[in-house]
Amino acid sequence: GRQKRLGIILYIYMQVGFCNFNTSFKGAITDNDIASLKSATQHLSDCYLMSAIETLSQTENGRKVLKKQIEREDTNPNQINCYLYSPTGEREKYSISADKVLTQYKELYSIQSNDIVRSLDISVDEYEKKYKSKPWICRFSEIFKKYKFENNLTSHFMETFTGVKPRVIGEQDFNWTLKNYKPEVMKLFKQMETEKEYSFIIGTGQKKFDGRRWHVYIIQNVDLKNNTITIKEKRKNQTQTMDIDTALKTFKYIAGYFNSD
């Protein structure tokens, strides 16, 4: 009799939502939220962030990470909680209002309509105020920017967001382009073409491309048969295809993950 009563109570609790055995994904952002990242447009110097989260959306494990690290508050859907890993590895929560404009971020609210991107921008801004963890060259360039989330190395953000170090080629080396890294890059591209599911970005350095320096692009496709890669830029949300040799002479670095990482 006692076990039967306990069973009934447990069943009722589960039905009304007091028991949640999937706590890590409670309130997680939806597939529609994740899909919205593809059309979100870059307005400030957060190409590293926008490109990183969109490329994560391209893989199964990347989408799991997005749902784990970004959630809508159960009791208040207009509050978005973003989680970032501290320099010592602790997972920290940053709660951002999606509808009430925070005075210090008034301009950001006015130009960035995607509340996921906006909340993550603010979370990174608060994180940087607290830790000043960006590489020194990025912190130096802050004097020319309005917000501290602007200008960052993609690999630094990826690790802060996922807790896992990404694979990197050439990002912080004293290289102008990827031309001297061709064997490493081609090995990576071959694995991309084989595995299909990957989350990688490719970025410029001081060398201008599309009129910009230090700009980040999403790698959407690698076609070794035709010796091309297809990349996407977030200011206009446009893709372009170029031959790999041109890419090696244009871009400085690559960073990201395979779905298996």
Task: Provide structural commentary.
The protein has 261 residues and is α+β, with helices and mostly antiparallel strands. 38% of the residues lie in helices and 21% in strands. The protein is built from 10 helices and 9 strands. The chain has helices spanning 2-16, 31-36, 47-56, 60-69, 106-111, 115-131, 136-140, 154-162, 182-195, 244-250; strands at residues 70-73, 76-85, 91-97, 167-169, 198-203, 216-223, 228-233, 238-243, 253-258. The strands form 2 sheets. Strands 4-9-5-6-7-8 form a 6-stranded antiparallel β-sheet. It is globular and about 70 Å long. The chain starts with a helix and ends with a strand. Residues 12-24 have low confidence and may be disordered.
Structural class: alpha+beta
**How much of the residues is beta strand, in percent?**
15-25%
Give helix % range.
25-40%
- Alpha-carbon distance between the termini? 50 Å
H and E string: HHHHEEEHHHHEHEEEEHE
DSSP strand tally: 9
C-alpha Rg (nearest Å): 20 Å
Report strand order across the widest sheet.
4-9-5-6-7-8
The number of helical elements comes to: 10
Task: Give keywords.
261 residues, 3-stranded antiparallel β-sheet
